[in-house]
Amino acid sequence: MLEPKAIDNREPEPTALNTVIIGGGPVGMRAAQRLSDAGMAVTVLSAEPFAPYNRVRLTPLLAGDVQFGDILSPTIPSSEFSVITGVRATEIDRETSTVTTADGRTWPYETLIIATGSRAFVPGVPGFDLDNVFTFRTAEDAQALMARSFSARRVAVVGGGLLGLEAARGMQRRGAEVTVLEHEGRVMPRQLDQVGGDMLAARIRDLGVEVITGVAVREAIGDRQVEGLILADGRTLDCDTVILCTGVRANNDLAVGAGLPINRAIVVNDNMQTADPHIYAIGECAEHNGHVHGLVGPGYEQADAAVDHILSPVAGAGYEGSIPATKLKVLGAEVLSVGAIEQLEVRQGVRSHVYEDADAYRRIFIENGRLVGVTAVGKWSQAGKVQNAVQTDARVYPWMVYRFRREGLLWPDVDEAASDMPDSATVCNCTGVTCGRLRQAAREGANTPELLSLATGAGTVCGTCRPMLEEFTDAKGGFSAARYWKPLLALSATAMFAALILALVPRVPFPTGFQADNWREWLWRDNIVKQWTGYTLLGITVIAMLLGLRKRWRFTDRLGSYDVWRLIHLGVGLLAAVGLFVHTGLRPGANLNLWLFLSFVATLIFGAIAGLATGGDHKLREHHIGTAKKPARRLPVWGHIIAVWPLPALLMVHVLVVYVY
């Protein structure tokens, strides 16, 4: 069972002016966290008896995948921050700038943030007031369902949206026989089209959950407890438990009592201010430009906009609205939906293209040559990139459409690493955290997924982005430095210096007359010495070529890591530069000898550049030069390989010409 637990049992004196936040949900806590970090005094009034928790994670809690402690919001370490649980705000007095709670206390505020969220909507269907009819919205609802699961045998979930499907899976995993009822023609009708909804429904049925779509519930029957449902088409569905997941309604009562303008929710401007400039509203209880968002991601964006305005009233562009985005696993099936799919299906001038195979369904919506929406069921390696493309109004070219219709891909099929993604790309859909914010937090010391979650809020809701957080922390903020990168840079720079000497420094002159004891005479005119230096250079070159193939021979892993052998390869290359100087005296010769000399020099130069690009890769990528999949070293490596290829043939011909004939 869940146990009520407050983050902070200290009761602040309600006479001290501070920022008061009504509502301890994820959105309210986001605003509280940021205000507290800025040094402001914050008091959160939460009507629930539990410490603030991530509401989205109630579904794995119901399924038994996590414990209640796992879904609690992080504690904010500040003496100026307090969460008061189990106190319901009953009145806002705008004249005295106070909030009154049900226990009779008043809480003065300088700034008030209403983050009361929404409540489960219960349709006016006869019989929905019977016992064993539940909603699924709060921790108390989850607690009641967990208790009921011990005796529930046949469960009917009314509502085939995301919450209904997750509730169905949770009860099914607890041993109940579950049926999902959706009055529209498909499950997740806001996020999926008909084909995608049908595919998802088929996968849900494969898991043992029955799905009935296109029919409404007319009545719930039973004497005192629910015993069944009568459907609009006359069928009767036997059940002993009903879970209502039929939407939500904004909690506006406090705002109505305070005389604030209300439509479907509390009307706010771009700064999330209500008609009273000292009162803000964020999350599901706020209506911005006629839109009320039911996802936590937009709520976080609204919280940030409100806090930005509170901290600096003249700065910032404010909240500009959100594009609906859902990217998560629904009963094990990956679902992606970005944009207002229902509206896009009927909007004039919007064209759509479909890709479908046995495992996946994908549909993109294009308006005026730009990607405005996407819906998909099944694994898609480009899901994150597609979502970012919709949110940035990216252009889609004809060849991209052709590739999509043929392969289901908008871009070439390359797995996207964390460091490949732009700062604007969203990593955590639930909290709206971008790559840029994660990189900044990682550079500031958040070097584990847990610290990264605490610093940014990413991964604290549904948890599907946790692997990406691990990639960011493993890569030290998204840009991984090569092992031994400092020695690698030093050797590469030395090799580059040697190669430039070979290419640019004039040849060493011979003595003007014969001098038997002159080292230049001995080194470059003595045939025996020339043979020894030539064969030495040949041996060094062969060793360097073999080391270049080392990573192709996996059995050599026992001899040392690739990073170590890369340094050895560079060292041998540097020896080859010295050997070339000793053998030639910087005299490239003519014809074949000239080509051989130039091939050596080109090999050394491109190898040194590749080493510099490898050692400095993490710094280059910080300046947006190269990516994990297309590193800056790629071109010089290919130049190095192309320059190496002629060497064996040129060396063979050189040996035959000079030493045989």
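(ticket continues) Second input and output from the same batch:
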Amino acid sequence: MALIEIENLTVTFTANGRQVRAVQGVSLKVEERQSFGLVGESGSGKSTILRAICGLAPVTGGTIRIGGKPLADPRGKAFSAQVQMVFQDPYASLHPRHTVDRVLSEPLAIHGLPGTDQRIEQALSDVGLPAAFRFRFPHQLSGGQRQRVAIARALMLQPDILLLDEPTSALDASVQAETLNLLSRLRAERGLTFLMVSHDLAVIDHMCDRVLVMQHGQAVEELSRETLAAARMTTAYARALFAASADRMLDP
């Protein structure tokens, strides 16, 4: 049984008096400990799928199941203990007036978990940050350091699933590679399952076992890592997306 199952998902927004289908009939399955990628241009609906899983976007059709069970609405503590999300912009996702200590301790306090000091120090160590960073504010950290704090926060409740929404796109190229390697290591060490969004097939190729290509809110083509690496796409859109990513990889 897949850990994440999405069947015929539709997400519809109302904008300027008209309905907009951001996601249209998308289905996918993510096995336990697998890393699954969603890739496509801006507006393809890939991030909306992550938001729908978290209850942040209106599901107007289809079903989402975690561990074989339909999600409760609204999502509760049991969901947040199992599923956490890492957002694109590490500065926007951290409260500017909260120290790293407060950012990391809040999930523990909400869930009534003991051992705050030990858990925070271990979390910082796990993401490669020294304990001295505990009482710093976000503006005192680099972009890569802020994203490491965001990843540490997502891991505080020891979830099974991480939803990753363009987790490196706001970072410099060298820091992107470090962050992706960190995520890969954490997945291996903790047996995590990833559902990861990116506009860049090169990132997905590095991180994911399978990938779903999306366009205009619809699923275009699902690829294995091997098919992606060999550029054996069957649709023109997937081939064009791969070519664009290959060009970016060749840029100086």
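Agent notes: Residues 173-190 form the longest helix (18 residues). The beta strands are 4-15, 18-30, 35-39, 59-66, 69-70, 83-86, 161-165, 193-198, 210-215, 218-224. Closing as not reproducible unless the customer responds.
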